[in-house]
Fold these 3 entries.
Entry 1:
Amino acid sequence: MITLSKISKTYTNKVTALSEITFEIMEGGVVYVLGESGSGKSTLLKIIAGLEDSDHGSVSVGNEIITGPSQNLAPGYDSIAHVAQDFKLQQFWTVRDNIGKKISHYSKVDKEERIRELLALCKLESHADRFPKELSGGQQQRIAIVAAIADEPDVVLLDEPFSNLDLPMKSEVRKEIISMLRALGITVMLISHDPAEALAVANSIILLRDGKLEQMGTPEEVYRNPISFYAAKFLGPVNELSVNKKNELIRPEDIRIVSSGLYEGQIESTTFMGMHYQVYISSKLSSKALLAYSSEALKRGQSVRFSIA
């Protein structure tokens, strides 16, 4: 569905936003683009959407070659919907009008049917005649996205769509929106700073580092088999330790605190995290305390034995 070949972009201030980015995305998937601020995530989405020119390389969506503003009088493509982080609903239009304006070229009957369909899809049928200021942040987010897909695009690009929502709402809205887009068979690419969100939702993860493609793969691949220390740390907590004269990177969940454990250590600190306790263990395996998870409240200074899965 989406193919990038050696996409590069350098801004006039000589800041390299993207360097030789190449990948393919299959149709109908949900792809998370991760990376630190300044890693090139937003630039990548804008180039794919045809809203920004690349310096080198090519982008195609389906069988269509995507070009930027320098080659198009009206930048962008009908088959690609791009929703910016600071999405703006028209505050003096009703929900119905915010959606309807996106499909003003439909016949009146078809437009009304499509609006009803989209409102049902995002579970806001009873809100059709309300104004955006009368909606919660999560409801506004849903309306912005269904408005973007009103004209039935093949691809939706979302720039940090859930960043402005509080944690309980974020989880619920994310689940509803991603389920909605999956049900429609739309290919989705979205930017996030939240690795846990990407691991829970994505079919595929793209990790950018300083404008370069650090790693791409399924959530399990990038989490369990990171190709670099940077990738390992970005996807979640990791311990550095020495086992059998080799340096290893070990996830906290792979350190098991058991009485029959091969290694011994001492609890440095314990923090209650809800479903588990987060503990730091000092041991001879590492100059730094090892992060592990425990179902029990262990006391500071307590001696423990542990194994490594």
Note: The helical segments are 41-49, 95-100, 108-121, 137-148, 167-183, 195-201, 219-224, 229-235.
Entry 2:
Amino acid sequence: MPTTRLAPSPTGALHLGNARTFLVNWALARRSGWRVVLRIDDLDSPRVKPQAAAEAIDALRWLGLDWDAGPFYESDDTRAYRAALEALIDAGHAYPCRCTRSQILAASLSAPHAGEHELRYPGTCRPAGDRAADKALLDDPAYAWRLATPDAPVAFEDQFRGPQRFNPQRQVGDFLIAAKGGQASYQLAVVVDDTRQGVDRVVRGDDLLASTARQLLLYERLGREPVPLHWHLPIVIGEDGRRLAKRHGDTRLSTYRDHGVAPERLIGLLAEWSGLGPRRPMTSRDFADGFDLGRLGVDPIVFTDADDHWLLSRG
């Protein structure tokens, strides 16, 4: 059966942008007969906040979303990530790296395609040959691990945005697949998790489009299947054009809930953002029944002070 996943990360509370993506994902699944897995992406232990996972699950239920399996927690079983790392090392696809962020920053200041949030790794530690690295270094906290990434485009068909083409080497270089100490990176963990949970339908924000190319490289290098189909949706941004964050005020679902805003009212705003017509209170089931992907625009959704006022004025 086609399978998708809701995968909140407990590094902070869910906000309106997260809620819209999860709601559309869930609606697509329920309209299309997909199985829904709930997974908590909690490997990023330094940033994981206590109780955030439970709060995220509670927020999804408050919105009226459900799932068919889970919740599964990444941190409950990390052996599969280790096995994938070892397979990449054995095949000569991964190598150890001792570079610090400050060293990469210094080398990246003049490097092409160094982004605002991601530095392009200049290949400082990349070995000259193709000999497999020493797996014993996986237990050495001085080394992170990188995928030897070819200088070639990765093309794929996004089910919402159409043909896509990215060259990870030009954008980020040999990207991290494990942090120092051996903890799997997001890019590796999501491939391992999706394959072991049978996820073949991925719906997420279009800020992750470039990540898809990196993950497809990992699917190829690991020989993993099924390779998912992807739907990348426009994200919610503030009036300053930047993705929704604390700088735009408190847009957490928990805050609106504490102010007495009903889930039906909040879903009504998300529905207008999703092409269902003028905002009006509705349930998650009403949203799923009326949702049509063809009416969803490709431009980012702009959250305004007027939206916040509407939510709170009759909550």
Note: The CA atoms of residues 234 and 298 lie 6 Å apart.
Entry 3:
Amino acid sequence: MTSLLVAASGGHLAQLHRLARRLDAIEEDRVWVTFDGPQSRSLLEGEKVVFVPYVGPRDLRMALRNTWRARKILTEYEPNAVVSTGSAVAMSFLPLARLRGIPTIYVESAARADGPSLTGRLLQRVPGVQRFSQYRMWADDTWRYVGSVFDGFKPVPATAPPVGRPLKIVVTFGLIEGYGFRRLVERLLAILPADAEVLWQVGDTDMTGLTMTACRSLPWLDLTVAMKEADVVVAHTGIGSAIDAMECGKCPVLVPREARHGEHVDDHQRQIAAELAAAGLAIYRSAEELTFGDLRAAMEVRVEELSDPPMIHTLPADRRAA
């Protein structure tokens, strides 16, 4: 039997990749459906992957256009379950899978700390879709709490690197298309030491007039290698960027994008940053408030992974593996 795992690239894919080993509905034989790009190719190397056209945040028109691809994929693989962490690409697959009688599971993104996303609200109207929240505070009879993608991490004290040598810093803004984060670039240029060795991964940020070397995106493997070697990671508050940094042992400095500056569709990144900061897993600052002292504070924390994170039970007890 085959499980179909559907997610947008970036944070949604990072979450599903991390949750896949914990969800009892996912078979060992699995097929991933996502967008093509350096992250997805690196992260899913060696896996069965089908790439579909990019669907932007809240782009329901493109999600509907992708249903013809979904129809072909569902017919070809005949999955026993379809699992998604969003975002809009879930609308291409889950309603169609339910029409075919295929069990479907939607795990709302950990980015949504105060309630379901637009995709989640739309899927509430599709009978039979199992819906799960990663936050106990808004779970109810229609959204079951299953734990969080962050459950497998804990903060521990660390020794900051000695003063006197150039710091290695990774700055990453994720893969979201159409939204830049120049405010954070300019703030970092104002506070970083002149001798710092900085890797800039800036996505769709306009870098006109700036002289440093930056790249739009990096293969996931290259980015994580750089994070492991870095003294500190500074990132927009995307789930994927946060997970990558923590898996590399770093306590990231998270700076939320803000809708009023045209940096995202809403302000959900503030929710993520606040939750991770409360758990001691990140430093949370706005771009205007960020100081070099915040970076030094992040260097004094190391993030470790739990060896045996809890399973997430979505199947009835009589269908779970013994």
Note: The two ends are 17 Å apart (CA to CA).
